[in-house]
Amino acid sequence: MKKLFFVGLLALASSCHNNLPKIAPDVITEHTLHDSDDPAIWINPNDPSKSIVFGTDKNTDGAIYAFDLEGKIIEDKTIRGLKRPNNVDLEYGFKINDSTETAIIAFTERERKKMRLYALPEMIPLDGGGFSVFKNAQEPEGDLPMGIALYKSQVSNKIYAIVGRKNGPLEGYLHQYELYSDSIGVHAKLVRKFGKFSGKKEIEAIAVDNKNGIVYYADEMHCIRKYYAEPSKGDEEISCFGGDHFKKDIEGIAIAQYENKGFLIVSNQQAHTFNIFDLETNAFIKELNLGTVETDGCDVTTVALGGKFPNGLFVSMNDDRNFFFHDLAKLKLLE
Known about the structure:
Elements: H1 2-18, E1 27-28, E2 36-42, E3 52-57, E4 62-67, E5 79-82, E6 85-96, E7 100-109, E8 114-120, E9 124-125, E10 131-132, E11 145-152, E12 159-165, E13 171-181, E14 186-196, E15 203-209, E16 214-219, E17 223-228, E18 239-241, E19 250-257, E20 262-268, E21 273-278, E22 284-288, E23 298-301, E24 313-318, E25 322-327
């Protein structure tokens, strides 16, 4: 009986998946060893066609994989030997000792209860083995980091990491850390605890609109929550929206920012589709089938990445230990 019920669920999921025309990917990456989860796109400032897509492999024997734009693994940029790396993000212009600037990649290492930080593209660790997060958490699994997003303030030029976790309180679920360096090294200082939680499942996907100073995160079975990313603007929730457009879990969030228009692209995980929202009004626009199954994380850039992706790149995790690359024009966001 249980088997028949499970088969029925799969058939229902498949029918939902096939109601929309499938938009085929341009590239499917090589496989990770265990469990692909969340990507981040690094744009090579000297040659965008040599940009790198990083992706987590969420396992006790985990890794941050580096892929070229053909989807091939770049072994000397891949970080192995990690303990369940979950989500990953990156930012540009991090100051080291007020003299040198570097791009940085940050990710959570859940089983070590750490946030990790590396310099890009050299893949040099900056964190002395990792920064502990969610110290003194009271809830079971409340100190296990999952989601992470980096925010570069347009006000102060400071860079922050906003981190989510497996479980937490109904208020103050997210922790925000200022990342900075001095003569001793690089540090992560807790600057605030914020963000509501419905208590229904967990909070994993986080994305920041740097231009407007807004953070979005997925309260997975409830809504997309919206807050100011700037600590000085307070902790009041701006809105909680979109929940009615998802079959069950609200997962990965990517922000496509054009000059005069922006979009939220959010994984409708159990429907195997993506929901598109207007970045300014947060109104629902449309749903897309990009061919992925059970997508967790996604990322996007509107920057042209050479001849392979002349209109920008959308990357999404697929539940076959890999990631799909779509030229951004295929999503028809501006039509």
